[in-house]
Amino acid sequence: MKGRMIGSSTFEKVCSHVNSFVLIVVLVSSSIIASASTSTEEADALITWKATLQKEASQLSSWTLLPNTSTNLNSSTGPCTWFGISCNLAGSVIRINLSNSNLDGSLHEFSFSSFHNLEYVDLSKNSFFGTIPTQIIDLSTKLIYLNLSINHFSGKIPPQIGLLTNLEALCLNNNELDGSIPPEIGQLRSLNVLALDSNSLNGSIPLEIGNLTNLVELYMYNNSLIGPLPTQIGNLKSLKSLSLGKNNLVGSIPTSLCGLVNLTLVDLSQNQLSGSIPEEIGNLKSLIVLQLSENKLNGSLPTSIGNLTQLEVFYVRDNQFSGSIPQEVENLMKLTTFRVARNQLTGYLPQNICKAGLLRNFTANSNYLIGPIPKSLRNCTSLLRVRLDGNQLTGNISEVFGVHPDLYYINIGNNTLYGELSPNWGRSSRLTNLEFGGNDITGGIPSEIGNLTELHVLDLSSNHLVGEIPKELGRLTYLVKLTLTNNQLSGGIPAEVGSLTSLDYLDLSKNKLSKSIPGCIGNFSNLFYMNLSHNEFSQGIPAQIGNLVQLSVLDLSHNHLSGDIPMEFMKLQSLQTMNISHNNLSGNLPATIFEKLHGLLYVNIAYNRFWGQVPNIKAFQDAPIEALEGNKGLQPFQPQTTDKHVSQRSRNVVLMIIFPLSVVLAVVLLFALMGLIIFKGKKRNSREEHNVNLYSTISTFDGKKMYEEIIAATENFDAIYCLGRGGFGSVYKALLPSGKTIAVKKIHALCDGNLTDQKEFFNEIMALTEIRHRNIVKLCGFCSSNRHSFLMYEYLEKGSLATILSKEEEAKELDWSRRVNIIKGVAHALAYMHHDCSPPIVHRDISSKNVLLDSDYEAHVSDFGTAKLLKLDSSNLTGFAGTYGYVAPELAYTMKVTEKCDMYSFGVFALEVIKGNHPGDFITCALSPSEANILLKDVLDQRLPAPTGQVQDELIKIVTIATACLHANPQSRPTMLMISKRLSSSIVQIPITVTPGELVIGSKP
Predict the structure, then answer these.
(1) What's one GO BP annotation on this UniProt entry (predicted)?
(2) Using CA atoms, how far apart are residues 295 and 114, in angstroms rounded to an integer?
(3) How far is CA 592 from the centre of its chain?
(4) pLDDT band at 872, cuts 50/70/90?
């Protein structure tokens, strides 16, 4: 019985083991069958998708299913060995990596539901297109990495992407996605990396972004995102990289961002952010890169940036920062890049900014900085790029810099540096740009400059250099631009300069260069601009000049050149501007030459010895009398028909020219010149009736296409699109097909024979193309044709200041702070025109109607329709110009326009902005000797509450400055540079007294 019991137990155990074995076999078999089934499903899905790809996918040649036959029973029929595919131990696909495989197609035929174990998908760097399918949510169970970057995916980001809750990395950057960022993205709480940059995403950043508390890297730059930075970003405590640059974000930098102490990169550049940098920025002690450039940030740079001891890159250029650069910057011992250009910074540069010897990029140009260049730069051998131009820096240039073997770019122009150029510059052999123009440098040009064989730009203009041009400059064979204008250089142009065959810009004007113009200039086959004017060159114009087939501007005026115009001139097919006036040139003006110059627009041959028939081409027909006078032997155009109609304006020009002559001579010349104008007017009318070439000058834009787009956008300049009218033209709003809105100024009667308008039109273009300033309206392009002529400007949303001041509610939006900033902006713009442009530019019509405001109420000076380029220490004799009530009183009897006329107009303008309307009789009262003081309340706009505190101090300063500008004696008015500096200063240096209930301003500044 006992034995049986044992046998029974043994039997039961054996049965149990057998059952277990059978179960294992069944489970393994089931697993193998399931795995084989899954693998087959995945393989079929991949093969099906491959067939939809549009390119022959050579990388996918391994994607082939082998038939399951007796000869390949041991061969794998699954995808695990295929290119770009990885599997788990069970043979199921877990990774697809087809990055940079030259694939072209969409994902719409991809069966996401066939991949149950997929964890990793990388399809980046291909040519995939179409939308991101919503079926991607079928991967929601295990997917942790999804990279579709650098393709052509379009459409919106599907909200369903928020269901991929295990994702740790989502990279959709560098595609063509649009629409807003779905708030559902906030459900991806496991995300470490979110890259949505370089698309066309719009809308605001969803607040739900603050839910991604595991996020380490966030990239949304280069989109069209709007709205403020959400304060919820402060929840992302693990964040190391934040890149939101190149969007349209507004508002201030949230203080909550300064609590993200792990940040190493912050890029908020190229937005519309305003306000100041929070002082708490100093908490980000791990920060390596801080990029805040091209915003509207203001205030002072916080001293706390000195706490960012790991900082290597500091970019805040193109903002509105004021005050001085904190000395604490010297604490940044790892600093390699420091860029604060184009702000309103004052004070001194940090002297020990390169104390650690690591500084490579140092740009602080276009500010109001004073004092010496940092002494630490002398031994800063790490320097690669330096721009300090456009300030008021002082010091001896020979003591500031040493030897910088890696320096490739330096521009310290437009300062007040003195001393001589050191021969050591020849040892900075990597230099491509050496720009020292607009200083007080003396001595000669060191021959060692010729060792800089990589040099592309050499600008030593507007200094006091003497001696000859070194022949060693001929070794600079990569030189593209050479400008030595406005010095005291002597001798001839060395023949070695002919080796500079890469030159496209040459300006040697306003020196004492002599001898003949060498024939070697004919080697400059790429030259488009050549100015040798205001020298002492003699003999003839070399025939080799005809080799300059790219030449657009030629100025040989004010020399002692003689002889005929070479026949080789006819080869200058690209020539648009030719000035050979004030020489001793002679002979006739051969039609065979000038008829070949189809692009010629402007000529000046005055004061030579030319004779014979004036060429019958447009440039001569449109030339003002001043451009032809002084050639006794010139004959007028031959009449083709008669015309009894001569414009009254042309008669006035003739009368103004001959009035000082004797009565008898006046009568004779009057009839002769009137006859000349009649013949020209009739000839022009006849020509224009048959002229079908509408595009005589197109610049910047794709000529005919842009012309047609503007005509269509304004419905042929229909009045409904007109924003305003002036004496020089009417301004229209044009919405282009690209979505860009521009302002188009259509010139009145430019092609009706009115020579003065023609000249002013081109003066305006020439002036504006040289201007680059935040407070001056940007010229986008221009067109001149027989049908229409117009200028194209950036469109400014708020319109003219005059219109805003005239409307009750809109004027109230201009609070005292905004008005002060408007006045400062106009002052900075005029200071730039008067003191930074060469030659200086006088506006001639400063008034509230010619100041436009953008959406942030920042001022932009407009309307250079009457602008003239002035030489230093000179004035222009011209007709009456300006707006009634703003014109300087001396213009009525002198007719001489100088920058002092702009000063008077600025004074009127400043008072108008404060008063809310034209100051009128207040001007007379302010200038009266019997008026010792001015009551502040009398010049305040009563629509606004009374100013207090700092704003009140600013207004006191402005009223005092404006009163000084209205001085009857032009020479007693301050300069625009003085005013700009004074307005930028925080010190109120104005005599003031307080009487009961009134604030009194001293009338004398």
Answers:
(1) response to other organism
(2) 49
(3) 43
(4) very low
What residues form DSSP beta bridges with 457?
Answer: 433, 481
DSSP conformation class of 304: G
Q: What three-state secondary structure class fits 594?
A: helix
Query: What distance in Å separates the CA atoms of residue 714 and residue 732, rounded to the nearest whole number?
Result: 7
Q: SS3 for 883? A: coil
504 catalytic residue (yes or no): no
Q: Where are the domains of the chain?
A: 648-690, 703-794, 799-1002
Using CA atoms, how far apart are residues 689 and 697, in angstroms rounded to an integer?
19
- Asked if residue 5 has pLDDT above 60, the reply is no
DSSP letter string, 436-485: --SSEEES---GGGGG-TT--EEE--SS--EEEPPGGGGG-TT--EEE--
Q: Is residue 762 a contact partner of residue 816, using CB atoms and an 8 Å limit? A: no
What's the confidence (pLDDT) of residue 644?
36
Tokens 């730069």: give the residue.
377
CATH class of 799-1002: mainly alpha
Q: Which tokens belong to 125?
A: 């760097």
* Closest to 385 in 3D by CA, of 418, 362, 366, 365: 362
Q: Are 419 and 399 in contact (CB under 8 A)?
A: yes
Give every CB contact of residue 123 below 8 A, 6+ residues apart in sequence: 96, 98, 99, 103, 107, 147, 148, 151
Coil, strand, or helix at residue 1004?
coil
DSSP annotation string for 960-997: HHHHHHT-SSGGGSPPHHHHHHHHH-S-----EEEETT
CA–CA distance, 502 with 485 (Å, rounded to integer): 19
Q: What mean pLDDT is predicted for residues 959-973?
A: 86
Please list, residue by residue across 209-226, b when 16 or more beta carbons sit within 10 angstroms of its beta carbon and e when fewer do. Answer: bbbbeebbbbbbbbbebb
What are the φ and ψ backbone dihedral angles of 587, each rounded to 5 degrees?
90, 180
Catalytic residue among 197, 318, 845, 863: 845
Angle between helices 755-769 and 648-658 (to 10 degrees): 80
Q: Give the tokens for residue 670.
A: 């009057």
Annotated binding site for ATP: 746
The CATH topology of domain 703-794 is: Phosphorylase Kinase; domain 1 (3.30.200)
Element (H, E) at 706: helix 703-713
**Which residues 6+ apart lie within 8 Å of 716 measured at CB?**
none
Q: Which residue in 443, 435, 501, 447 sits closest to 473, CA to CA?
A: 447
The number of beta carbons lying within 10 Å of the beta carbon of residue 939 is 22
Q: Give pLDDT tens digits for 680-735.
A: 343 333 333 333 222 333 334 456 677 778 888 887 777 778 887 665 677 888 88
Q: How far apart are the two ends of the chain, measured CA to CA in Å?
A: 131
* Beta-sheet strands, E only, within 675-826: 697-699, 722-725, 729-735, 741-747, 779-784, 789-794, 799-800
Sheet holding 697-699, edge to edge: 697-699, 779-784, 789-794, 741-747, 729-735, 722-725
